[in-house]
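hey can u check if this looks right to u? its 173 residues, i copy pasted from the old doc so theres a chance i mangled smth
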Amino acid sequence: MKPKLLTVGKVANTHGIRGELKVWPETDFPEQRFKSGAGLLLVSPDEAKTMPLTVVTARPQKTVYIVKFKEFDNINQAEPYKGWSLKVSAEERAKLDRDEFYFHDIIGCDVRTEEGEAVGVVTDILRPGANDVWVVKRTNGKTAYIPYIADVVLDVDVAGKVVTIRLMEGLLE
């Protein structure tokens, strides 16, 4: 069985002629993932090919990170990897505080009211601003948008894959 891998970034483009890559971060911990000495796995879009990499240096630049890997000395070595993903094993995921969750832990969870009534399944998480919004495909086929706030999300049981919510007026309309 293949180990579970988590995506921490995607190669957007090359940068300069020394083999640096522009990486679009897909992690809440880019400083940790792209720090000097960090090991990452470069994975092809079809997931058929992989290559272990070691970060030499990284620096933020607007919405990307410019990352230099030990394995690439020039643009010609780095060029073929545009569009590839950077991953780590699930065992390497960062520890979270008590009320923090990884998106992949929440997506797929059953949503129930505090009375135990089935509402649906979390299918996506939006980040519009002040708080996250969990997209729930309801049992009736409609979509509900559940704000991730203490008044609404009462409990998240990651192991049991169940989210308990308090219905507020107009929440499921």
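Helices lie at 30-33, 75-78, 103-106.
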